[in-house]
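Can anyone check this?
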Amino acid sequence: MQLHLWFAESVRRSRRFRAFAGLCVSIALSNAISPHGVAAAENWPQWRGPKDDGVSAEKNLPTEWGREKNIAWRLALPGTAGSTPAVWDDRILLTAADKSDLLLLCVGTDGKERWRRKLATGNRDVGLGAAEGNMSSSSPSPSTDGKHVWVFFGTGDLACLDLDGNEKWKINLQQRYGAFDIQFGIHSTPVLHDGRLYLQIIHGPMRGDAEPAYVVAFDATTGKEIWKRDRKTGEDFECKHSYASPVVYDDGATRFLVTHGGDYVMAHRLTDGAEIWRHGGMNPPADSGSADSGAPSGAVGPGGSAATPGGSGGGLVERFDANKDGKVARAEIPEGPTRRMFDRFAEQHKLDPEQTYTVAELKKLAGAAEQAPAKKSAAGRAGPAGYNATLRFVASPVVAPGMIVVPSAKRGNVLALRPDLAGDATSDKDAKVWTLARGTPDVPSPLVYGGFVYLVGEDGVLTCLSAKTGELVYRERVHGARHRASPIYANGHVYMPAFDGRVSVVRAGAKYELVAQNDLGETLTASPVASNGTL
């Protein structure tokens, strides 16, 4: 199947809609564009927008569209991508994988491709199959300042081009700092801030004590390294792996880099990368028996079921059992992502891939991994009972003035932290503004706007909390499909993209109101973008 770029026009007024999908991208043209093709409005320079928080100041955006509704044009693209495009004036900058090749493309808002550049080879598709979505090495999103565009791929290639597609510099992080060792590949997006690119590479072998994770800053103009810091936390097994992206906290007075992974969220000085503070309490949740947010200790998780920490190992093992006979043999697993997952599982647990195992045996192995005891951290912390050795972080923190909202994983807790911490603040009772004991989004990152925090569960449940107290405002199932992309706020609405191509539009505020659900009929794994009067 082919990936497409769509361009749609509203019947009542000309509005743009665009969404990146596993198989399509949609855009609707706006009359706000000047005679020169440039709209004098807000650009979307990187993954989570102008302030890296998923919030747009755009007005008069569409709330309704469809595969055959308000579509003005459609452009075939070379392959899949999970990245969110960057938009500057009349240029749309996006990545894609074309078989082994990794590409950066520039498409005009007129629907015409302006240029494409092959910047790397060696694409790797990973995931759990078509039902849940695969990822490619083109998943990190591009960034732009209107003069240059920066792009990073899971192969380690980091490049800068001008907006005409001329390469300015390119480096490879694996060649420079060592090979990546992470189960599903590197998918973290660099953050662009004040002429610098900041990256977190949180990875490492599941077996053994090695902790090769690091944080690095580059001069965006030259590609020269400004600083690099090791990031050690004493994490274990799969917790060494993070798919989250860094963000910059900037309230006008205080600025620092936030990284997320290895059981900790950390703050680093922008000047030299030195650690300012760290906070754990997510693995296991330090507050698993209470809820500072006012929810009872037995809080109901997304979807109405009791939220339980820990593993998805059993579900994965059941996928291996293709013929459902209670036994697993490699030969029965079709070629593709699930077989590759089995091979990694066999390698991790030192299994003979040619031997037949019972589902119960494999589930026992997966469960034992999840209950593996923690080691002592770099700060000397002894891991408490209940440590989940598969609690890799995927969702990224989001920043708001006076607060950093930190997700964990697998329906664990959510922390709202003060920015003015110091040292290891895990046990500092005053470090947290509030805590939600259970119900973190596993993949979509949180959204904060207008005094509310919005959490989109992978199962399509939207949780709205008071940003001030963390108290539950409402929890509603919006759409019962897998949600992997992060929501955005624009024009009084929260936009929630689902993997099946449906984007739910919910009115922002204390009262739940589903405004519209718009179905493209094709898979969608990237966040929507609001820019220059368009969505």
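Reply from J.R.: I decoded it. The chain has one domain: 3-290+388-519.
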